[in-house]
Amino acid sequence: MAVTAAMMEIPGRAESMDSGNNEEQEILQRCRRGDLPAYRLIFERYEQPFLRTAWRLLGRRQEAEDAVQETFLKFHRRIGQYREGSKFSTYFFRILINTCTDILRKRRREPAGPLEEPVTGASSSHELRHSIERAIDGLPERMRSCFLLFAVEELSQEEIAGILEISVGAVKANIHHARVKLRESLAASRREVAS
Predict the structure, then answer these.
(1) Cα-based distances in Å from 21 to 25, 73, 84, 88, 148
(2) How far apart are the C-alpha atoms of 142 and 144, rounded to whole Å?
(3) Alpha-carbon 83 to chain mean position
(4) What are the tens digits of pLDDT across the range 19-38?
(5) In the chain, how many H helices and how many E strands?
(6) Would you say 67 and 99 are in contact if contact means Cβ atoms under 8 Å apart?
(7) Residue 162: which residues within 8 A CB-CB, separation 6 or more?
(8) 116, 135, 169 — which closes off a domain?
(9) Where are the alpha helices (DSSP H) in 33-151?
(10) Cα 60 from Cα 67, distance rounded (Å)
(11) Is 83 in contact with 174 (CB distance < 8 Å)?
(12) pTM metric for this prediction
């Protein structure tokens, strides 16, 4: 599975399986029976949103690819643990977030390596994008997760609370503080460029 820069730039939300509950339940039942086309359908719907989220959380393309692959493997191994009636996207994103958190914990115990930075051009829009990405990368882990799931994947605050297993109030506070920190960081970047 190769991650391209274009994949990371695709805005928008995962095509949610939750929108059609009957379709969702049918696909998940097929997965429980080992139906590979059903797994492929889930993969096609979630691969790109998961890659975007993992890359933004981890900052390294290879780790993002590994996290997504591990997430799909965990889903396959644990399909029997999914409780019918639960929201599938919340369950599935939770697996991804836990996998990324495990990678970040492991990374803290290892010598630090450079984070990948997207290729930027000389134009101001590329510079702004680069500044925004650096600012997001600088957010604390939980705050970054809340912000990315809300602003990039367009999940509701309630969905994020379920994924991260925190209260809706904590999600709102993290999103608010992320916006404040991002504004401050971008203002500082502008001042540096101006001086």
Answers:
(1) 6, 23, 10, 9, 25
(2) 5
(3) 22
(4) 456 888 889 899 999 999 99
(5) 9, 0
(6) yes
(7) 87, 90, 94
(8) 116
(9) 36-58, 61-77, 88-108, 124-137, 141-147
(10) 10
(11) no
(12) 0.70
